[in-house]
Amino acid sequence: MCIGAGLPMPKVYVIKEGAPNAFATGRDPKHASIAVTTGLLEKLNKLELEGVVAHELSHVRDYDTRLMLIAAVAVGLIAILVDVFLRFTWYGAGARGRYRGKGEDAGGAILLVVAVIAAVVAPIVAKVIQMSISRQREYMADASGALLTRYPEGLASALEKISGDKDPLDVSTKGTAHLWIAEPFKGQESGFNSMFDTHPPIQERIRRLRAMEGAVQ
After folding, report:
1. Hey, how many other C-beta atoms are within 10 angstroms of the C-beta on 61?
2. In this structure, is the dihedral angle defined by the CA atoms of residues 45, 46, 50 and 53, taken in order, positive or negative?
3. Where are the domains of the chain?
4. Among 27, 73, 129, 158, whose CB has the most other CB atoms within 10 angstroms?
């Protein structure tokens, strides 16, 4: 798969975990690693495994891990800046209230309300944007992986098995959820939660892959 993708061989790890899943990490192709669970090796056939590996190699080739790290840092930076602004506004409003008139007090109160709203809304908007980028990169890795194997059905079938598996992925956390090929937490789907999902809907990914069948033959 690496030869076909024009990539150096990454480090390969196997996680002793019954749930089928996989992820790639590393700042660039020369320092990449791919990890698969024992459940993935046991429950998928060769063509399905190739589809999963091709998907993860596409993340490596497209520097997706680095991109998501930058996005995560940007979200954290926005949260810090908003917090600093809120503190400055809060203490500034208190100081102005001691030395200025009622009209200026009202202006300071309005500014404080705006700061509070920004403190609540800005990090949420930034997080939604981050998750939107993550979902789009998953679609791109699916398409690139299908082009690499020339067999979209392999990855589509793999995603079906992964999403339908009932074993919990105990080794995952909210902080690492975006790394996996499929959403590791199951049974939490809702319209509101979908805004913060790290992955697009699995059925839509499968539909898009199967729509590629004729194009890659």
Report:
1. 19
2. positive
3. 2-66+135-216, 67-128
4. 158
Q: Which helix (H) or strand (E) holds 15?
A: strand 11-15
CA-CA-CA-CA torsion for 124, 126, 127, 129, nearest 10 degrees?
120
Of the candidates 17, 48, 56, 183, the residue annotated as catalytic is: 56
Most confident of 23-27, 91-95, 192-196: 23-27
The string of pLDDT tens digits covering residues 85-104 is: 667 666 555 545 554 554 55
Helix (H) or strand (E) holding 113: helix 102-149
Which phi and psi angles does 36 have, rounded to 5°?
-125, 150
Tell me the per-residue pLDDT of 112-122, one tens digit each, with 9 for 90 and over.
676 667 667 76
